[in-house]
Design brief:
The chain is mainly α. It has 2 domains: 75 residues, Orthogonal Bundle (Helix Hairpins), CATH 1.10.287; 101 residues, minor pseudopilin epsh fold (3-Layer(bab) Sandwich), CATH 3.55.40. The protein is built from 9 helices and 3 strands. It has a 3-stranded antiparallel β-sheet, sandwiched between helices. The longest helix has 24 residues. It is globular and about 50 Å long. The mean pLDDT is 95. The site of manganese (II) ion has 7 residues, from helix 1. The site of manganese (II) ion (MN) has 7 residues, from helix 1. One of its GO terms (molecular function) is metal ion binding. This is Superoxide dismutase. Belongs to the iron/manganese superoxide dismutase family. It is an enzyme of class 1 (oxidoreductase).
Amino acid sequence: MEKKLYILSDLPYDYNTLEPYIDEETMKLHHDKHHAAYVNNLNVAIEKFPDLFSTLRLGSGQESVEELIINLNDVPEEIRTAVRNNAGGHINHSLFWQSMAPNSGGEPSGNLAEEINKTFGSFSEFTSKFNDAGVKRFGSGWVWLVLTKDGKLDIVSTPNQDNPIMDGHKPILGNDVWEHAYYLKYKNMRADYLKAWWNVVNWQEVEKRFK
Ligand code: MN
């Protein structure tokens, strides 16, 4: 096969370092089993079409995974759903791990802070609107802070493993509201997980993405 398979990167920190907000067992399962399965299933799907990358004129780097879901209609129908779910899962989780860090949380600074205040009124109005969108996502999905096509901040929610880039938005920050992200510790209390999660948000990384 001409294309190098996608790979699962290690977490940028230890499994237990987001305690007490996200527990070690959840982090292990979430990264080593769930994210690993998305990467593996994506590789299995694209292996069936060895010419896919040259046909779609995609690069050979890991970043080509985004082009797969942006150009989903050009992906062969036989693997389109698998690519949508698993490439999406790979992208979303890669972004998610980088958006968190031990000893983080707090509030953003600089341009992002200004833009959040301008758009949502205040940081606390922003987080409560974000949490609300996360609670209201029926079933499994994600809640996002995005930069829209018009260059404005907005909060959106996507089902399953869909990513805002499928709608032309740039994701700045995303939280996973699948039950596998919180159920071991928070049980059915998704709202509690959403609130606690702000304690592990890596604003330095999020600000970089915003620039
Ligand atoms: Mn997940």
